[in-house]
Design brief:
mainly beta, 10-stranded antiparallel sheet, globular
Length: about 190
């Protein structure tokens, strides 16, 4: 299973390097729920909309199998450097500055921090590292999330992905002092 997921991710990354931006996103958005080697796989996707006058775009794709959720972010148009990426509590990107998405998703009510170093919000993903190339990629796998389950402390559906102008410093409360929200997307169930 792990080998198959790595092969699938490798194919996505390879296609990202060989296609135009439009071809990449047309070809790689999940399209149906499937089974991989008899294991049910769920999928969700967040299609990034530019906010706060930025021109970024991209997708954050999620897959769930065997109790773990994988994230793959592919973002275009980020300036060189670090940019915070978080899950926010409301699946609402209607505001031009992204603030309609509310604060960080923090169902357990702990302090903001760095992913993996307790305490941290369930939505504290971390920083994207943009090199100035066309596509910035980030991957993560966790058992802290689920796609469409009944546990509201884990369910990522109908939350928002927010990308910030600057880096998360992992210490400032309540959100890491990452600056303007330059991208927003609602996490929606998808087909793989």
């Amino acid at each position: 299973m792990k080998k198959l997921i790595l092969i699938m991710l490798g194919g996505i990354l390879f296609s990202a390097c060989n296609n135009t931006v439009e071809e990449y996103y047309d070809d790689n958005v999940p399209t149906e729920i499937d089974m991989v080697e008899g294991i049910p796989v769920k999928a969700a996707v967040a299609n990034i909309q530019a906010t706060s006058g930025s021109d970024i775009k991209g997708t954050v794709a999620f897959t769930e199998a065997e109790g773990k959720v994988g994230l793959e972010a592919n973002i275009i148009g980020l300036s060189k450097g670090k940019h915070a990426i978080h899950i926010h509590e409301k699946g609402d990107c209607s505001a031009s500055d992204g603030k309609s998405a509310g604060g960080h998703w923090n169902p357990t009510g702990v302090d903001h921090g760095k992913w993996g170093d307790e305490p941290f919000h369930t939505g504290d993903i971390g920083n994207l590292e943009a090199s100035g190339d066309t596509i910035t990629v980030m991957t993560l796998t966790t058992d802290r999330w689920c796609i469409g389950c009944e546990d509201e402390n884990k369910n990522i559906l109908n939350k928002a992905i927010i990308i910030h102008e600057g880096p998360d410093d992992f210490t400032s409360q309540p959100a890491g002092a990452a600056g303007a929200r330059i991208g927003c997307a609602v996490i929606e169930e998808s087909m793989m």
